[in-house]
Amino acid sequence: MKQKDGGDPQMTMAEQIIRARKKAGLTQRELAKQLNVTNKAVSRWETGGGMPDIIQLVPLCRVLDLSLQELLDGVEEGLGKQFISSLLIQQMDEDKNINTETLNDHVFIRPQIHRQMPTSTYIFGHNLEHTRACIYGGLSAQVLRNRKFAGKPSGSDGCAAEWIPIGAEHTLYVLDSDNGPQTSVAYTHHKEIGKEMMGTGKMNRRNECQALDVQLLKENHICGIRQEKLDLRACEYKLRIIAKTSELVEIRVALMENGIEDTNGSTYSFTLHPGDWQKENFSMHIPKAGMYSLSITFSKRARVTFGVLSMLPFDHFHGMRRDVIECMKEIGVSMLRWPGGNFAGEYRWQDGLLDADERAPLEAYMENETQPYTNGYDYNEVGIDEFIALCREIGAEPFLTINLANASPEENAAWVEYCNGADDTRYGQLRAQRGHKDAYQVRYWSLGNEMGYGHMEGPMTPGQYVMLARRQMRAMLDVSPDLQLFSSGPYPSEEWGTKSAKELAENVKYASLHHYTYVPLDYSSDEAAKNTCQAIMDAPKGAYRLIKEMRTCLGNNIHISFDEWNCWYAWYRPSSAAEGLYAAGMLQLFLNESNAMDMPVCCYFQPISEGAIEIKGNNCRLTATGQVFSMLKAHCGGSLCPSLKNNSVTATIKDNILTISMIHTGQEEPRVFKIQIRGDLFDAKLLSTDSLLPHSRFEEKILSVSEIDGIFEVVLPPCSVACVKFRV
């Protein structure tokens, strides 16, 4: 290619771009438009805060009437420059598309001119839509399933789901509801919380609160309820039975292993007196871990109504599992969104001020689809105080979603005041009285969830949403003017961008984007399995196009919050290493593009039993996706380094530590990455796998790195993720 006049080999790349742009009579905005990039990107190039991506170099040279050699003269000398320059020039001369995959095997890092703005820590955010099913699939430490007797009877005997009747041939079982015809009402009825509550203080929703009536019809027979397959640790458990009776009756509780009571089990008996609800608290020690059953029985002709049962290990954290919490720390949850997702439209924050035993189970939106472990119910074990305690324990920023359509502005303003108000305000005082004098300082609030899709509060136009959102935000901002607010909608949508996000932009600076990768799962043959896994691993490419479309429909003054992402129906199937590689690609996409796309918030949906943390009984572990989060969290809060890259490579620097991660999604051959960097290598790890099929995980290994003349060579086997660290 003939070199054109106007270049100066002594100038930096930034200076070359400025000079050529002005000579062409272009503003930064005009240049950005021609290159299909943001104004901020051009500004960073011209201030030395970053370099154009490799795929932008050729178009940039053509627009500015520069040769590629002139542009690269401003890049530090070295093998990386020589390789890139010669190859690009050759391909321009041949008028071919740039082979970015080949180019990216040669990574040229300049940490001394890294972008000044660090990447957002909230790229490593997560959702906590539901707490999931007791210890069998969720965060709650509760051992007993359906401890509040939600839903329909499991059979014709009338006994509650998850419970087995004892002595059913002489016993009548009746599920008794607040709204039903029976004379008794549930213990977890819709209680008031004194005069401090808004409105009625009632739990007003479509699901019922129930108790279980057990009536023995013949004297001197044994009746009651039993629950089996309780996966118990060798430790002390705290139990509570809340019940009432019409007659004085002796209640017997027994824990048995393998049906044997007198060897490894425990027993406890107490007298239940006639009258109102009675709480019986006691402990049982389990000497050996294993599978147990629990029985609660009596033998006197009487009517016993069970309201709530509870069984927690002695070391629980506000009713939550400590081992799951440690896994959440391991994956680096930097932000936690709750009650994110589809039950936000049924949730009322005041419910969480009740004792956990007094909260009605939440009937999950779409029933079993979002709560397959619990017959469509969330047991409502986590309230606002427990949620904040969890966030503080794992070091996550709290991110709350209000009930936009079904809660009044006054209710949501009260929630803001409870979280952020001083202890002399109405609800700040209530918080202080509950043992939390210091304000929670919750800054991030979403104005509803997935509004306008039609599946939540029904069909909604952008204008209708704006009307609702303004009423809520005004009340909330009156209480706490510094809130960071998020709008919802079926994005990306030009109509919603114009008529909703931009209409609210003065006060609502973020717009939520949700996307679930859907890949038909076909493992019926080797070829089908290979194609399925490859489609999963390649899905971040589609996410990038979606983000660009979102950026276009929002314009330049609204942040993107990609606050739900995952594979579709992840909660219905075992995870795999293919999904781990998908997560790695998504995280590197966010790291590489969050500043350029003005996308500071990204939240995975959701860590617990939906991809990152696998829970089976008393055991929990990181899945392949969780392993990826754990490895790549080293990038969190680092500044992105200029590199010639695509989303196979990410380089960040923080506290003089350069972290480079690489992904190889090819299934056949290894891939060689060559890194030109001045620094001392001190850590190199590899996640690799021999299988991408469901149930697969990564094996963590020490990564072999060779060096010749300052060029570090890294060989990645097929389907792997690597992370190397340098002191620079």
What does this structure look like?
- The chain is α/β, with parallel strands linked by helices and 728 residues long.
- The protein folds into 4 domains: 13-103, lambda repressor-like DNA-binding domains (434 Repressor (Amino-terminal Domain), Orthogonal Bundle); 122-133 and 317-636, Glycosidases (TIM Barrel), CATH 3.20.20.80; 146-313, Jelly Rolls (Sandwich), CATH 2.60.120.260; 649-727, Golgi alpha-mannosidase II (Immunoglobulin-like), CATH 2.60.40.1180.
- The chain is built from 18 helices and 32 strands.
- The strands form 7 sheets. It has an 8-stranded parallel barrel, surrounded by 4 helices. A 6-stranded antiparallel β-sheet has the order 24-25-26-32-28-29, covered by helices on one side.
- Helix 17 (577-593) links the parallel strand 20 and strand 21 (601-604).
- Helix 2 (28-35) crosses helix 3.
